[in-house]
Amino acid sequence: MKRSLWLLLLLALAIVGSMFIGFWQLSEPREAVSAQSAGNVTTLAAAPGWVDVQGGTRRLSAKGDGVVSEIAAVSDEPVAAGAVLMRLDEQALRLDEQVIALERKRGQQAVQALSRQLALAEDEALRLRRLVAIQAEAGDVLRQAEAQVQSFKASLQAAQLADDGSRLQQQRLALQLKQRVILAPRRGRVLRAEVHRGESVSVGAPVIWFAPDAPLIVRAEVDERLIAHLKIGMNATVEAEAGDGRIYPAKLLSIARAVGPVRALPEVRAAAKDDRVVECILSLGEVPLLIGQRVIVRMGSAP
Predict the structure, then answer these.
(1) φ, ψ for residue 81 (rounded to 5)?
(2) Is residue 90 a contact partner of residue 64, using CB atoms and an 8 Å limit?
(3) Considering the chain, what is the average pLDDT of its residues?
(4) φ/ψ (deg, to 5) at 208
(5) pLDDT at 220 exceeding the cut of 90
(6) Which of 51, 115, 172, 174 has the greatest number of C-beta atoms within 10 Å?
(7) In the predicted model, is pLDDT for residue 296 greater than 90?
(8) Consecutive H or E run containing 279
(9) Of 178, 199, 230, at which residue does a domain stop?
(10) Is-contact 181 90, C-beta < 8 A?
């Protein structure tokens, strides 16, 4: 009797244990499951790499010298294409803009006035020419009128050149004002701001690290001796160098059509001067990795 009770008790414990294990497997995160299945890829080639985005990130540089008056904040929220990422102080240029606008307005008024005077002088010269033709007016009076016409023409030409100069100054100033602002080249995110409000910057200085709103990829540099093992579409795994050991699935998207020296991550491994690599791009999907993070890529065929 006691033996039967013990058997029933052990059977009940086995059933409860099976139910608990099943529930635990159902509640296991999808990410871990994917990582476990990704780890089964047979490795044919391994290489260092780093996380990037499709299209690549951009280091935006200052287009002029000045003091930063506005800088975009680093945020997880994307910014729209054309949004202001940085602005340099525009106070002095705005004053120059007003001065040039007044000069051009004065020049345009001078052109209009001289045009009216020239028209009147030409009419007077035409009237005197008719009178001289019938000997009703002296020729000296006509010559004086024609000289006045030439004088007005010269003055009008000078005024028009001055107005053209003011217009070119306005265009140059508009270009300078445009260069005081850095706009988002497309929808994306500010990864890092290299300067702060109130700092002075010079032309060419990097100010914004910008990433387009695009899927994550991995760029890997594969030794040229392993090129024969690479095939577009082959499975791969990605593991962060300084991570918790989690492995993420990836797929080989493209292989560069040129072989070159190790250049992207020379600190990852010691490379001889004659080491040659080919850049490979892999799709990564939604994973908790950061842009610029260094990873180890293992490529191979699916099991």
Answers:
(1) -60, 135
(2) no
(3) 83
(4) -135, 135
(5) yes
(6) 51
(7) yes
(8) strand 276-283
(9) 178
(10) no
Q: Is residue 14 part of a domain?
A: no
For 166, the domain range is 91-178
pTM for this model (two decimals) = 0.67
Q: Which amino acid is at 146?
A: E
Sign of CA dihedral 291, 214, 205, 93: negative
Which string of DSSP letters, residue by residue, matches 176-232?
A: HHHTTEEE-SSSEEEEEESS-TT-EE-TT-EEEEEEES--EEEEEEEEGGGGGG--T
Measured CA to CA in angstroms, residue 236 lies from 44, 55, 120, 279, 294 at distances of: 9, 21, 86, 15, 16
Return d(Cα 189, Cα 73) in angstroms, integer: 10
Same domain, residue pair 104 and 160: yes
Report the distance separating Cα 112 and Cα 91, nearest Å: 32
Helix (H, G, I), strand (E, B) or coil at 143: helix
Contact 197, 67 (CB under 8 A): no
- Are residues 230 and 282 located together in one domain of the fold? yes
- The amino acid present at 141, given as its one-letter code, is V
Residue the block writes with tokens 């051009």: 104
User: Which phi-psi region, left, alpha or beta, contains residue 249 (left: φ > 0; alpha: ψ -120 to 50)?
Assistant: beta
Residue type, 8: L
Pairing relationship of beta strands 42-53 and 294-301 according to DSSP bridges: antiparallel
pLDDT computed for residue 264 by the predictor: 53
> In this model, does residue 121 exceed pLDDT 50?
yes
237 inside domain? yes
The answer to whether residue 33 scores a pLDDT higher than 90 is no
Residue with the two structure tokens 């409000």: 197
